[in-house]
Structures are given as C-alpha cells and as structure tokens.
Amino acid sequence: MKVGILGSKDETFINDVISNLSGVEVEFLYFRQQVAPIAGDHRVIVDRASFCHTFLKETMKNLALSGTYIINNPFSATATNKLIDIGIGSTLGISFPKTFVLPGANLTEETEEWVGEPVWERIVDEVGLPCILKPFDGYAWTNVYTIDSLEELKRVYYSISPSQVMLVQHLIRYEDYYRAFCFSKKDVLFVKWIPKPFSMGQYLYSDLKRIESMKDTLTKLTIDLNICLDLDVNAVEWCIDEDGHPWIIDAFNEVPEINKEALPEAYYDWMVQKCVECVEDKLHSNQVNKTVFLLREELGDSVFRIYPPLT
After folding, report:
1. So what's the pLDDT on residue 192?
2. Which of 121, 174, 211, 221 has the smallest C-beta neighbourhood within 10 Å, fewest atoms?
3. What does the alpha-carbon distance between residue 41 and residue 245 come to, in Å, rounded to a whole number?
4. pLDDT (tens digit per residue) in 80-114
5. Residues 48, 7: contact at Cβ < 8 Å?
6. Looking at the structure, do residues 105 and 52 belong to the same domain, yes or no?
7. Domain contains 198
8. Strand 25-28 to strand 2-6: parallel, antiparallel, or no bridges (unpaired)?
C-alpha cells in the first residue's frame, strides 16, 4: 500500500511527516491527462495542493470515488465556505459574529426579480462600526477589510469583483486569539496566535489560563465541527472577547500552514506526529471519504440484479 503526496517537495512539514512514516512507500504525485473514470493505486493521498488548481481538485474527487482516502476530503473542501461554516457551527452552539451576506454587485435586469441591492443603513445599524468586510469563500486573510463608515463600506463593496459574494461582520474586540489545530477529528492543540495577513501571524507558547474554564468545551466544539465538516486536518480560529466570551472567526482551513520556523518546537513536533498517526490510521483501514453520492456498496448488490450483466 502506497501513500501519495500532492504538495511541494520543498515543504519542511510534509518532508518531516514522510520521515516519520516508517516502512511505508511514499511518493510525490505528478499528473498529466487522466483517463476517466479516474482510479489510482494509492491507499492514502495527503493533499496540500489541489486548492490552487481545478484539475487537481477534480482528480482528487475522482480518486476518492475509486477508494483512495484523501486528506482532506475533497468533497468537503469544495462544498464548504464561511457561510456554510456559520450555518453548521451555529447548529452546534458555536458563536459567530453577527453577519450579513451580500450578493455580488453585478445586479442586472435579469436578476433584479430575485436579488436586490443591500439595505446599507440596516447593515451598519446591526453590525456596528467599525465592521469587517470579507469574501464568503476567502482564505489567508485575503481581501479582508476593516470598515469605518457607511460610505467606505459602499465604496469598497463596489470596487470588488462584481460577482464576489461578500460577508459583513461585527468586529469582535478580542483579548486573546487562538488557532486550534485539529487532527483526525479527535486531537486538538490550542496555540496562541497574533493574527496578521499574508502569513505574517505570530505563534506564541500558550498560556491557557484565560480559557482554562472553557477549554474542554472549546475542544469538544472544535472536534464536533471537524466531524461535521469531515476534515482530518484543520485549523479553527477562536478569539476571546473582553467579556471572556469565545467566538469562532474562521472555522475552515483546507490546508493549514504549518511552518516549523514560526511555531514553537514542541507544537510543531506534535503536529508532525499527529499527521503521521492520521495517515497511518487511514492506511491500515477500509475507510473512504464521505460523499453526497450513494455508491454500489451502499445501494447493495440486489439493486443491480434486475439488470443483465454489462459486458
């Protein structure tokens, strides 16, 4: 049984994971054209690249259908976004900032029957100022704006790609900010984080006294969220406001950046080990990625007996 790696050969984290996979055949993947239906000979693939190329994402989906276990589930990764995260997380009792969803600004005569311009005054009244404007499917703090006035909100909104769905959120005044790294939907590590855009955030050794009374609850909510999203590797961003109330700011990170130079050594080593355990667990199991489809095993052979054999 082989493990495939879809990612950069220069990434320190993935190379450290490979070094700790003893007795396992591992190879980096490279794709050209594919013959449909797509199948492969890898039991597990660690996917840290398909998010940046549609061809790779669709290939991962098809390999998952053929029985390869993909970390992370490509169907979940394609389906989720910040709006979906809020909907799922809210059913679990997780607090998210007050949020409005805005349609893209490309309103036309064909769509005006169903989609209208936002009621800006209501938005500002309910979320307050300053507020946050960001894409509903953004990542890595890209195109995240802090807005100070109604006029600025309109100006920035109309300057963004006209097809881009946006979120306006209440700005949480936080005292502490944590990234909760979750592996295998069961192992969680809270790392104190100073958030900054363009991967410039700083990780610190974490004094968890401030969340000691709620740590077990936050751990359970983080695990429950990852079970619902069906993610084996994720980084959930929790912040604690001035009143000690926890909020999730970002619930989904398809490929969490795990930078050896940025993380305290003990935390980095823990993440490497948990990723290794996740890969080994899937390698020696018959688990498959969840999909929205019913496959033959789920339908049962009796369904197919009403048809003559195909040749």
Report:
1. 93
2. 121
3. 48
4. 999 999 999 999 999 999 999 999 877 777 778 88
5. yes
6. no
7. no
8. parallel
Has residue 53 been placed in a domain? Answer: yes
| Bond before 62 cis per omega within 30 degrees | no
Is the peptide bond between 118 and the residue preceding it cis, with omega within 30 degrees of 0? no
Domain boundary among 152, 170, 188: 170
Relative to beta strand 2-6, strand 42-47 is parallel
The tokens of 176 are what?
């502490």
d(CA 130, CA 294): 47
Structural tokens at position 201: 């955030």
Among 293, 290, 288, 282, smallest CA distance to 67 is for 288
Rg (CA), the chain: 22
Residue 150 has pLDDT above 80, yes or no: yes
- Whether 163 maps to a domain, the answer reads yes
Asked whether residue 119 is domain-assigned, the answer is yes
Which domain range does residue 39 map to? 2-78
Q: CA 305, CA 309: separation in Å to the nearest integer?
A: 8
CA nearest neighbour of 233 among 211, 215, 255: 255
The span from the CA of 245 to the CA of 255, in Å, is: 27
Residue 165 and residue 103 share a domain: yes
Q: How many domains does the chain have?
A: 2
Check residue 198 and report its DSSP letter.
T
DSSP assigned state of 119 = -
